[in-house]
Write a structure and sequence with these properties.
It holds the Pfam family MGS. InterPro entries: Methylgl_synth (IPR004363), Methylglyoxal_synth_AS (IPR018148), MGS-like_dom (IPR011607), MGS-like_dom_sf (IPR036914). This is Methylglyoxal synthase. One of its GO terms (cellular component) is cytosol. It is an enzyme of class 4 (lyase). The chain is of the alpha/beta class. The protein has one domain: 3-Layer(aba) Sandwich (Rossmann fold), CATH 3.40.50. It contains 7 helices and 5 strands. A 5-stranded parallel sheet has the order 3-2-1-4-5, with helices on both faces. The protein is globular and about 45 Å long. It binds 1,3-dihydroxyacetonephosphate.
């Protein structure tokens, strides 16, 4: 599965601790991240993370483009709900696309923990089934 990790500045510590705690699960997947988050996660864990631009410089939009291209299966986005972000429209657009395309989106650490455990339990296998069906339909 293709998974995006994103965290606003006040949640960076949380995403790092989360990535360390669940690296055994995360390493089985293709990881993507906005620039600063991804760099910090990669440094802390040694995980291979595909880096996009930093969020305020377009990283959220790049991840949104992956969703629109059917290339993203899950987003873990630890948002800071108490600090205004200069790129708030990009943040909203990314979350909107998750709803448009039925992409599981965890916006806080409590939901992120449930998601990552769900990965181990196979709770997200429906994503693979949907993707395979779409690919088959496209070949027809
Ligand atoms: O701002 C962000 C998401 O909206 C995160 O970007 P960085 O990971 O580059 O800090």
């Amino acid at each position: 599965m293709n998974i995006a990790l994103i965290a606003h500045d006040k949640k960076k510590k949380d995403i790092i601790n989360f990535s360390i705690a669940y690296q055994h699960t995360l390493k089985k997947h293709n990881l993507y991240a906005t620039g600063t988050t991804g760099k910090m996660v990669a440094e802390a864990t040694g995980l291979d993370v595909n880096l996009f631009q930093s969020g305020p410089l377009g990283g959220d939009q790049q991840i949104g483009a992956m969703i629109a291209n059917d290339k993203m299966d899950m987003i873990i986005f630890l948002r800071d709900p108490l600090t205004a972000q200069p790129h708030e429209p990009d943040v909203s657009a990314l979350m909107r696309l998750c709803d448009v395309y039925y992409i599981p989106l965890a916006t806080n650490i409590a939901a992120a923990e449930i998601f990552v455990r769900g990965l181990d339990n196979g709770d997200f296998q429906w994503r693979e089934i949907v993707k395979e069906k779409k690919e088959k339909d496209n070949r027809k």
